[in-house]
Amino acid sequence: MSAAAELVPDEDFVRVCRLDELPEVGAAAADIGGTVVAIVRTKDGSVHAVDDTCSHANVSLSEGEVDGCTLECWLHGSRFDIRTGLPSGPPALAPINVYAVKIDGDDVYVATTPQNTTPTHLER
Ligand code: FES
């Protein structure tokens, strides 16, 4: 999936896809007005959105593996908590942005601005 997002007037959310276009457990990339995000569905059916670009190098996180609430980068194995954006496994030290998700019927909407409330850098 990488369809152009559909703007919703008077709201800060864009429609990115239908629920049934997402993998049962996994991630897919979507463009929300110039920012590519990874739309992630977990085993419990919850849907999250995070930056699609790994904070360690310029690769697509939506091509990684989903394990619980963790998205693992396919290149060097950094793991990110998709609820907070914080890295939970090296080598990445910087968090990724997290975006609010709304489900309306069969449609998935993602906020156009990130909602991170976490520290901007993980202390090690
Ligand atoms: S590029 Fe993602 S961990 Fe290195």
Automatic annotation (TrEMBL):
<keyword id="KW-0001">2Fe-2S</keyword>
<dbReference type="InterPro" id="IPR036922">
    <property type="entry name" value="Rieske_2Fe-2S_sf"/>
</dbReference>
<protein>
    <submittedName>
        <fullName>Non-heme iron oxygenase ferredoxin subunit</fullName>
    </submittedName>
</protein>
<dbReference type="InterPro" id="IPR017941">
    <property type="entry name" value="Rieske_2Fe-2S"/>
</dbReference>
<dbReference type="Pfam" id="PF00355">
    <property type="entry name" value="Rieske"/>
</dbReference>
<keyword id="KW-0408">Iron</keyword>
<feature type="domain" description="Rieske">
    <location>
        <begin position="14"/>
        <end position="110"/>
    </location>
</feature>
<keyword id="KW-0411">Iron-sulfur</keyword>
<keyword id="KW-0479">Metal-binding</keyword>
